[in-house]
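hey m, so remember when u said the tokens were messed up on ur end? i reran from scratch. heres the input so u can diff it against urs
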Amino acid sequence: MTPSAALLEIRGLQKQFGGYSAVSGVDLAVTAGTVHAVIGPNGAGKTTVFNLITGVLPATAGSIALDGVDIVGWKPDRIAAAGVARTFQGIRLFRDMSVLENVMVGRHCRTRGGFLSAVARVPFREPPAEAQARRKAEELLEMVGLADRAGAVAAELPLADQRRVEVARALATEPRLLLLDEPVAGMNPVEVEDAGRLIATIRKNGVTVLLTEHHMSLVMRVSDVVTVLNYGEKIAEGAPEDVKRHPRVLEAYLGTEA
């Protein structure tokens, strides 16, 4: 997909908790069809920005525009329906449900029907909407490499596979923008390589990716643009090769001797 206009545009974003400013006047533009990374040390405000974009937290000030429409004040479900999905730094699967069922849950905002369709269902016959959700979930599990684990209980999977289930569940909402919060945390080098290939596949399938991550080699390899936050402020932005040489980045995040 050829990069085009900004899919997500943030201007003057602020979030205060009492007297503490977690995000201070951040500007950020995510171009459609790209992988855009937001990095910074712990406490830099990365996850707070994600929470503001997805409506988990209300913004103190500033604007967040999705395709030119300001979504500040929207509820998380409305933002998800508009095409924004996310994963979490702390895995949030339905642990006692199967892998397939976890992914099917993600189809909820794209599936018609509800209580009346559920009580009116014909015994022993899967409703069309549910069958469609199942087929889509199976396709996504194939894409993330977990087709053979569809029937497994989510809690029994290793960490890397649980993260893949979360990605599949987020993709089940058919997002235009996918937010990945620390997608390779706790993974070994082989699993990190696999995750990098999955991110590339997601982008190839037309989904714009915004990610936060501490694994710098992955960030530099998969990202088109890198934004660096420190103490809630943007201190650098640009191509990975430029950002990793930026003096303020070396000092604040990568280390002065990097």
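this time it looks ok to me. The mean pLDDT is 89. if urs says something different then somethings off w ur setup not the seq
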